[in-house]
């Protein structure tokens, strides 16, 4: 992450995304700031409902504009997206920025061939002829590792395996060489072998094109594999950020530590039992007072004056590294030492 006085390729400042529902206002994202450079990957990690997917739908302008109040700033290569017209966003989507989702089958139309769907995206943004679009679709299928692309280009999505559909969706997302790719849990539904292949593919494509990637996941193992920088979200807020090495080697927030200790790894210590984080993610309609993590935090009672349940800790960031927690560095050092933090190093 860059310091705030540099202009990053993607710059998000104090983003707030609030929905109105029949039950009240849902504060899905509540003051989020981050930067992303070209050619780098930012991993956004958190449980369901932490605000990570909403953040990215908002960047793409895919939220319901009538029921959503958005505040803050999203700059993509200097262009403000929050105030952009739908027609402008339409031009940017698929061209300058693209997204791949978890469920390729739901994202691809079952009525059209894979080649037509990739080709149409290309034609829409470049004005290419049908023949040129078909050639481009074949080239993209080849690039993402589909065997016999000149034949498979005429297949329908149901004729592809799950891994091949995911590759086809990546081909569609990258057909116009976007500079920003948002990947929302793109490998969650795949088996580990295919997952590893897709991750390698994304890394190769990023090297080739210099794409900036926002990678959303609940899996710290995936973050360890692909991210340069990490942003940990909880209850619509960033609770910790830093480089991958900083966050995974020396976590500063009890929630990050909890995530690490609740996930198995292939090379982690076998004698350290997994310990799931107790409780459930907070309601964003009526979030807990103070630190939103306090009802689940094993360290809350160690902070003097009951501060955790009354005062929201500020996210203090120095040089891109930061966390939002009332624990002092000395307390953190003392308390965290008892917990296994080496699983994902
Ligand atoms: Fe836990 Fe308090 Fe830190 Fe929140 S502020 S994470 S409740 S110690």
From TrEMBL:
GO terms for cellular component: plasma membrane. Keywords: ATP-binding, Cell membrane, Membrane, Nucleotide-binding, Transport. Residues 12-260 form the ABC transporter domain. Its main location: membrane. The keyword Transport applies. Pfam families: ABC_tran, oligo_HPY. GO terms for molecular function: ATP binding; ATP hydrolysis activity. It is found in: Cell membrane. InterPro entries: AAA+_ATPase, ABC_Ni/Peptide_Import, ABC_transporter-like_ATP-bd, ABC_transporter-like_CS, Oligopep_ABC_C, P-loop_NTPase. It is a peripheral membrane protein. SMART domains: AAA. This is Peptide ABC transporter ATPase. GO terms for biological process: peptide transport. Belongs to the ABC transporter superfamily.
């Amino acid at each position: 992450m860059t310091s705030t006085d540099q202009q990053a390729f993607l710059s998000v400042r104090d983003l707030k995304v609030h929905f109105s529902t029949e039950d009240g206002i849902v504060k899905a994202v509540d003051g989020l700031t981050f930067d992303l450079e070209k050619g780098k990957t930012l991993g956004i990690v958190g449980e369901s409902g932490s605000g990570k997917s909403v953040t990215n739908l908002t960047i793409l302008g895919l939220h319901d504009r009538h029921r959503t109040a958005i505040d803050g700033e999203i700059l993509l290569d200097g262009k403000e997206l929050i105030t952009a017209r739908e027609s402008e966003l339409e031009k940017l989507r698929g061209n300058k920025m693209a997204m791949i989702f978890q469920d390729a089958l739901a994202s691809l139309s079952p009525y059209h061939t894979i080649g037509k769907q990739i080709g149409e995206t290309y034609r829409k943004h470049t004005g290419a002829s049908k023949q040129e679009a078909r050639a481009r679709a074949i080239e993209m299928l080849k690039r993402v590792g589909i065997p016999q692309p000149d034949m498979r280009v005429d297949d329908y999505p149901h004729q592809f395996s799950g891994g091949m559909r995911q590759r086809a969706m990546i081909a569609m997302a990258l057909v116009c060489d976007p500079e920003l790719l948002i990947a929302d849990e793109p490998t969650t539904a795949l088996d580990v072998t295919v997952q590893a292949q897709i991750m390698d593919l994304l890394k190769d494509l990023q090297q080739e094109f210099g794409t900036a990637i926002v990678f959303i996941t609940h899996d710290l193992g995936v973050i360890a594999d692909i991210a340069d920088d990490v942003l940990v979200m909880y209850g619509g807020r960033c609770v910790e950020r830093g480089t991958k090495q900083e966050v995974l080697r020396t976590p500063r927030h009890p929630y990050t530590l909890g995530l690490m200790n609740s996930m198995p790894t292939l090379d982690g210590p076998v004698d350290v039992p997994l310990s799931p984080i107790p409780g459930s993610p907070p309601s964003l309609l009526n979030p807990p007072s103070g630190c939103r993590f306090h009802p689940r935090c094993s360290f809350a009672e160690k902070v003097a004056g009951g501060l955790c349940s009354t005062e929201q800790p500020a996210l203090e960031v120095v040089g891109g590294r930061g966390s939002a927690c009332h624990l002092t560095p000395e307390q953190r050092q003392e308390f965290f030492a008892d917990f296994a933090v080496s699983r994902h190093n």
